[in-house]
Design brief:
Layout lengths: L3 H13 L9 E6 L14 H4 L3 E8 L2 E7 L6 E6 L5 E6 L8 E7 L3 E6 L6 E5 L3 H4 L11 H10 L4 H6 L9 H11 L12 H20 L3 E3 L3 E2 L3 E2 L18 E5 L2 E5 L17
Helix pairs in contact: 1-7, 4-7, 6-7
The structure holds a DNA duplex (16 and 16 nucleotides).
DNA sequence: CACTCTACCTGTGCGC
DNA sequence: TGCGCACAGGTAGAGT
């Protein structure tokens, strides 16, 4: 389940690894599953990718941004979203396709950039300007200015959990790190954004920042028996029924905005003004 | 505007 | 053992 820290790990490998993708050129493209290219924003024209060179590898929220120099246009941006189960890596040119390989970009150094995705949720776009795709997103969760974060919370009267997952508010937080950030901030997932006190907002901001920075450092989350990309140890996500690491209370799982939500009933108390839904 | 539902997918893990 | 099914997740789009 790639969220911001997992996507950042991919960026660092492709940008800073040996070999780096930067400076390499796409020779041919192999589309193993058509659906990876089609989307409401238009289909990717494979022929336009051939001959393009990688200028930079970056990220905004969970979107990967490959800035390209192209034969027929000054520049283009290849955008890839890994969604739930997508993986991106460099392999030797002749490496056999895996069962879940969706897209292969053959490169001019004997390697290939391969996109594997069992659940077919991941997508790729080729656009003149990355803003076409990421323009609607809020600021990246790792570059979140406290004052702007405060303004964005105040602007809506919404439950914190769905608001944190809304990529147009803040980009990069998914279900795991939303739960982890709210736990660290000591805030209930159903607390109302516009009703937070300023110290609560500060706590949430620093919780998001520290959780994500630690997770980037650990190269992603490590969730018991499910997801083991990195070493970040979760406190609440998937730990329903287990004791809270802080107070020993039993971690609960409820549904908030259709999403599984994990929290500690002792550490994350709803303030009197907020009305919780009686959910299980 | 805030929320809910549905669609998109398939591997996993449960109950029977 | 094997079958069926609910479930997980991020996002877009439609509907309330």
């Amino acid at each position: 389940m790639p969220e911001l820290p997992e996507v950042e790990s991919v960026v660092r490998v492709l940008r800073d690894g040996v070999p780096t993708l930067v400076g390499l050129r796409i020779v041919t493209v192999n589309v193993a599953w058509d659906g990876v290219l089609s989307d409401a924003n238009g289909d990717l024209d494979v022929a336009e990718l051939e001959g393009c060179g990688f200028i930079s590898v970056a990220r905004h929220g969970k979107y990967l941004i490959f800035h390209l120099e192209c034969p027929r246009k000054p520049s283009r941006d290849l955008i890839i979203h890994l969604r739930m189960t997508g993986r991106l890596f460099l392999v030797p040119h002749n490496e056999a396709l895996a069962r879940h390989t969706r897209l292969v970009l053959m490169l001019n150094n004997g390697l290939a950039l391969r996109f594997d995705d069992p659940r077919k949720f991941g997508r790729a776009w080729l656009v003149d300007d990355a803003a076409t795709i990421i323009g609607r997103l809020g600021p990246d969760a790792l570059k979140l200015d406290p004052a702007e974060f405060c303004a964005r919370l105040a602007r809506h009267r919404r439950q914190l959990k769905p608001l944190l997952l809304d990529q147009s508010c803040v980009a990069g937080i998914g279900n795991i790190y939303a739960d982890e950030s709210l736990f660290r901030a000591g805030l209930h997932p159903q607390a109302i954004s516009s009703e937070l006190a300023s110290d609560e907002i500060r706590r949430l901001h620093s919780a998001i920042t520290s959780v994500l920075e630690e997770a980037v450092e650990a190269q992603g989350a490590n969730i018991d028996g499910v997801f083991k990309a990195g070493r970040f140890a979760v406190s609440v996500y998937g730990r329903q029924g287990a004791p809270c690491r802080v107070c020993g209370s039993e971690i609960r799982k409820i549904r908030v905005g259709q999403r599984g939500t994990h929290y500690c009933p002792e550490c994350q108390v709803l303030s009197p003004g907020d009305v919780p839904h009686p959910e299980t």
